[in-house]
Write a structure and sequence with these properties.
By secondary structure, the chain is α+β, with helices and mostly antiparallel strands. The chain has two domains: 15-88, Helix Hairpins; 95-229, Cupredoxins -  blue copper proteins (Immunoglobulin-like, Sandwich). It has four helices and ten strands.
Length: 230
């Protein structure tokens, strides 16, 4: 959960988000080193009056400042490609949930179970309980088991939406007439918040996403109660 004046990312709750955080730190360190080197060169050029005719025209320096940036780009590109392939992998999911975007709420269908589905609306501010978050709480949460591969099929019924949960490292566009898929694994129990990340109309800001990760036994109990209520 994000907090006021937070500068970094939210704490990772999935292996994919941990990889993204590591790549962010890796790339940011390279940016810091390049920025410090460029600043040093600028200050040195402005403050010193000494020059060398071999520096003004040198094949060796031209080779260095051509090859070195290429090496740096490779150091950034290889980890990036690795994460891109990891994000597209959906290996033997234990549970499949279909998320449909509407104006302006989400509906979820647990496709492994017959007729298990519900709509998820934002709780109005005046109906919030103590400790609940304004504009982020929903009347029905998407409940998933911990440490299990979860596949999410994302689509929309009317306009473009986007199903995004930052702490899980998940963001997938919901396109009418098209079925996209993404996957995640929660590494610990908890309640994780997200929002629609595609401008979809007047109430775009009122389409929260709440994913609750519970232990397998608790998930089975919730599943049996939900099926009894149908």
């Amino acid at each position: 959960m994000a907090h006021p004046q937070q500068l970094g990312f939210q704490d990772a709750t999935s292996p994919l988000m941990e990889e993204l955080l590591h790549f962010h730190d890796h790339a940011l360190m390279i940016v810091f080193l390049i920025s410090a080197f460029v600043l040093y060169i600028i200050v040195a050029m402005v403050t010193t009056k000494i020059y060398d005719k071999y520096i003004l025209d040198s094949q060796e320096i031209e080779i260095i400042w051509t090859v070195l940036p290429a090496v740096i780009l490779i150091m950034i590109a290889l980890p990036s490609l690795r994460i891109l392939y990891i994000m597209d992998e959906v290996n033997d999911p234990h549970l499949t949930v279909k998320a449909m975007g509407h104006q302006w709420y989400w509906s979820y269908e647990y496709t492994d179970y017959e007729e298990l589905g519900f709509d998820s609306y934002m709780i109005p501010t005046q109906d919030l309980m103590p400790g609940q978050f304004r504009l982020l709480e929903t009347d029905h949460r998407m409940v998933v088991p911990v440490e299990s591969p979860i596949r999410v099929l994302v689509s929309a019924e009317d306009v473009l939406h986007s199903w995004a949960v930052p702490t899980l490292g998940v963001k997938m566009d919901a396109v009418p007439g098209r079925l996209n898929q993404t996957a995640f694994i929660t590494s610990r129990p908890g309640v994780f918040y997200g929002q629609c990340s595609e401008i979809c109309g007047a109430n775009h800001s009122f389409m929260p996403i709440v994913v609750e990760a519970v232990l397998l036994e608790a998930f089975e109990n919730w599943l049996s109660l939900s099926l009894q209520d149908l």
